[in-house]
Amino acid sequence: MKFNKIYLFLLAGTLVLNGCKKEKLDPNSVFVDSKIEKNALDNYIYNNLVLDYNIDVLYKYVDKESDQNYNLVPANYDSSIRMTKLLKYLGFEPYDDITGGKSFIKGYFPKLINYIGEAAYRNNGTKILGTAEGARKITLYEVNRLNATSGVNANFLTDSYFHTIHHEFQHILNQTTDFPSSFRTISGTSYVDDLWVSAWANDGAAIAAGFISPYASSSDKEDFAELYSFYVTLSAAQWDARLNATGSTAAGRTIINNKLILVKNYMLTVWNIDMDVLRANIQARIANLPNFNQTSL
Amino acid sequence: MKRNYYLLTIICFLFLAACDKKKDRVFDESPTVRLNAAVANAQNILRSKPNGWIFQYFPGANAPYGGVNLFVNFTSSTDVNIQADYTTGNITSSYKVYPGAGPVLTFDTYNSVLDYFALPGVLSNWGPSDTGLGGDIEFLVVKANADSVILKGRKRNTTLVMVPVPGDAASVPALIANYRTSFNRFYNANSFRFVTATKTTALSWGTYNGLMAGSINYSFRPTDTGVDGFQQYTVDGITFKQLTFKAATATYTKGYYANADESLKLVIL
Q1: Same structural domain, A64 and A152
Q2: Is the pLDDT at B86 greater than 80, yes or no?
Q3: Is the confidence at residue A155, as pLDDT, over 70?
Q4: Which of A215, B22, B31, B58 has the greatest CB tally within 10 Å of its CB?
Q5: Residue A129 maps to a domain
């Protein structure tokens, strides 16, 4: 027995010796990135978005950050400049004004914004205009459509880019602090999930059922984000016109307004943002678009 | 006897510890070092031609749509200028070579001359609504040396070749003009037919620059002297790849392309 014990210790010792091989990891990647000279837009993004908001913009196509299921083309340089400047002007600065600093956007806005030149088209010809992934990345499509004319067209900017931006941002705020469950009970069983694509003949039909848009009818989360995004990006007149679209009903408008009260209340109590002040700020910026320089860096 | 088993086990483990495997490497350098070197080499080769390269570009998987010539000049570590035979556009955009499965060349901002082939069909009006002509914008650099660069499209897997633009800088505009004339001659033809000693085969236009004989696809790239096939084709027992343009004759009023002994003609109609 005595011998056995000694051997056992020896055996254990050998095992420990075998396991004990420390290797230090090099913090640098073994792959050297080729030196890329920074251009004016690179510098603008670094100085204005990365440093101020901790948000990076990929205006050059990076395949692993892009949706491989579609045929995508890169954004062009000139449109990327416009998009980046407008993003700051119409997307971030309204929140800075309302909250009194950059920390709100810095703290909550997705960290990566990916530009794609044209929309992602499905084989039936329908297209995707914007996507968000895991509160970390927003992909904006059709950036190449942005030019001197479309760049001052508020409806185009809202429909193509900023509706998506505010919508996705609202999801992230909801993930941080959930909205009150009483919101869910208002439209309760009316949500149609994936059938939102075919459930409504037009926007008016969705309004009649109490949804600000067909997509809002897919779930309470989307409903909440759609209400928020439409409200802050549309002028009072546009909002009213939307609520009174052909096919809409007073009953539907009442449901929407009841839900809107909860959305406004949530933004005010949880985030200290008055949606009417935010909307006024965005509208003032839209009115000033012709004077805003989108091309200088 | 029992203790001997322990002894054996310990000896076994000692052997394991002693056995520091160091196989002889096939290559002297580690894969990482070699990949970094390959990326640097590809970058250097691409930039080494002041006149740039003729990119013999065939869009789509297996290249069913014919080909074009892109005149690609890598003017700085980020900028690339692209002209082509199919359009008069002259556009500068950006590129990058980065490590992937090998060096990967990506044209990473929009260049309408190249990206025309990558646009969804809804926008280019060619091919299926989503894939369009299926042109690649990212390429694996399979081989890069001073004479040619062999690229493989990352999405469609089509192997493509770049060769240096010949001549000096002053002759480049004339060369490109020549290619454009040649392209238009081919592209504007109503249709074609193959003519051999014994047989005539009617050809009709497929998608973009592709030709069809019934269900058989022929994919040609117009060159300054004639046309070049994406691969070798055999018609009526005659195998060919390159054909030379011959001016109009009394029989062939719009001219024709022919192989060396003129046993096969691609007649313009």
Answers
A1: yes
A2: yes
A3: yes
A4: B58
A5: yes
Please give the tally of structural domains in chain A: 2
What residues make up the domain containing A102? 38-172
Q: Are A191 and A287 in the same domain?
A: yes
| Residue A225 is assigned to a structural domain of this protein | yes
| B109/A contact by beta carbon, under 8 A | yes
Which chain B residue has the Cα nearest residue A33? Answer: B98
pLDDT digits (tens, 9 = 90+) for B134-189: 999 999 999 999 999 999 999 999 999 999 999 999 999 999 999 999 999 999 99
Stretch 210-239 of chain B: residues touching chain A, C-beta under 8 Å: none
Domain-located, residue A193: yes
Q: Are residues A48 and A168 in the same domain?
A: yes
pLDDT tens by residue, A125-149: 888 878 887 778 999 999 999 999 9
Q: CATH no. for residue A155?
A: 3.40.390.70
Residue B131 Cα, gap to closest chain A Cα (Å): 6
Global ipTM: 0.85
The shortest C-alpha distance from B171 to chain A (Å) reads: 30
Chain mean pLDDT for chain B: 92
Among A124, A148, A172, the domain-final residue is A172
Could you write out the three-class secondary structure of chain A? CHHHHHHHHHHHHHHHHHHCCCCCCCCCCCCCCCCCCCCHHHHHHHHHHHHHHCCEEECCCCHHHCCCCCCCCCCCHHHHHHHHHHHHHHHHHHHHHHHCCCHHHHHHCCCEEEECCCCEECCCCCEECEEEECCCEEEECCHHHCCCCHHHCHHHHHHHHHHHHHHHHHHHHHHHCCCCCHHHHHHHHHCCHHHHHHHCCCHHHHHHCCCCCHHHHHCHHHHHHHHHHHHHHCCHHHHHHHHCCCCCCHHHHHHHHHHHHHHHHHHHHHHCCCHHHHHHHHHHHHHCHHHCCCCCC
Query: Which of A126, A153, A172 finishes a domain?
Result: A172
